[in-house]
Predict the structure.
Amino acid sequence: MVTLQTYPNPPMLYDYFGFPPETYTVQYPAAGNPTLAKEIEVLLQENGIASAQDAKRGFDHGHFIPLRMM
């Protein structure tokens, strides 16, 4: 199932362990877009793709590391 992040200002989720302290202070202050997420959810469902909203999960390192590096 596809999960769409709907948090307006996603927090950071440091879901890794054992790295240097500075790696737990990396910030990626991008705004979320709940309206766009809802539009995407409708399109997915119209095309038979199961989806759900998640208004609690923040950016994990799979999001913020590549985006921050760009």
